[in-house]
Amino acid sequence: MATTSKKKTKTLKKSNNIAPPKGKLGVLLPGMGGAVSTTFIAGVEAIKAGLGKPIGSLTQLGTIRIGKRTEKNSPLIKDFMPLANIEDLVFAGWDIFPDNCYEAATKAGVLDKSLLSDLKETLEETTPMTAVFSRKYVKNLDGKHLKKGKTKMDLAEQLIDDIKTFKKESGVDRLVMVWCGSTEVFIQASKVHSTIKSFEDGMKNNHPAIAPSMIYAYAAIKCGVPYANGAPNLSADIPALDKLAKQKKVPISGKDFKTGQTLMKTILAPGLKSRMIGLNGWFSTNILGNRDGEVLDDPYSFKTKEESKLSVLEHLFQPDLYPDLYSNYYHKVRINYYPPRGDAKEAWDNIDIFGWLNYPMQIKINFLCRDSILAAPIVLDLVIFLDLASRAGLHGIQEWLSFYFKSPMHAENLYPEHDVFIQLMKLKNTLRYLQGEELITHLGLDYYDFA
After folding, report:
1. For a 10 Å CB count at each end of the chain, is N or C smaller?
2. Residue 440 lies in a domain
3. Could you list the residue range(s) of the whole structural domain that residue 345 is in?
4. In the sheet that 360-368 helps form, which strands lie side by side, from edge to edge?
């Protein structure tokens, strides 16, 4: 443990006694055969075997400043906090296709075949359980490796049995679930989502507004398993599951992994606003292949993704506070399925801005990214931080994990925070708070020490 600052704020108290991360941590992945999940699993196994490094992971490579700058005390986050060790992760999940992790990763085509060959024996041991799925919610996929049940409650109970069986047979001490499945069709919260009773009655009556991802979230929370939603569709972010999470004392977070184009927006837009530079328009388009591109080729699934991507700028620029700069900009988002590109997505942004005396300027971005390469460390961090939250006694929506999402879940009557720099500050201050350390506010206290 790193040496910490001796000086504490008088009102600061340690938030929780954090239980130690004893034993193995089970990672449950709906959509286990997709590009994100297989890249994550294979990546972790490669890191365990010394074949790669966890680039992009805050829990593995990030540092955190403790005390004053003059103390030069910035330990690794994993040395400062009692986090689960990457060596202790054990994987399980569900998928609509029966391929084991090696077969699925090979088909996804994200990682080099030579690396997968080195991990083949380990990856072949990870096979998916039958999934809860319906083409009503993801129209462009058609897998056959599915659970059967008369009602959605039947399916939820089967998932609960899967979770309990895996925990018992694998010997893991704790569990975390991260939805890595495909983007479902656009659904708005309604009366069936309002209370635990209405939601459970809806599952018993096969209500059409209850999608598979909600069934997974329900099963996880009922089992006391922290849950994160990596897709933009409605899932745990409904009143019924928020209430259930608080009742069961389970941390939840989401939604939609912040990877490519939106990551760039949450980095660039705060910079423009900080200098009071105006915006006339922001046009964004993407081409991508793989299963994600195929799913988003359906307009109903794209609607869900579009809502997530469009909401970012509205909250970042706060046009109600800065009407002269941001009240009348045009924002357009397009995603185009292009199979030859595979997981190597290409994103273009044309940004029309204006400055002093309304003189126009432009910014153009061409981001050739790899979605699953950017998403894999997000999954790792969410697994480890949600496990920490659970052991620290935190439950309900974990706003401090907004750093990882395009559409962060947030408390009722609050707007989501999208500024990536504010999100990171909130995340690190939460860690400081949990360890009873002074929060970093950048109020110039170091300056006054020398005054």
Report:
1. C
2. no
3. 261-368
4. 330-337, 278-288, 346-354, 360-368
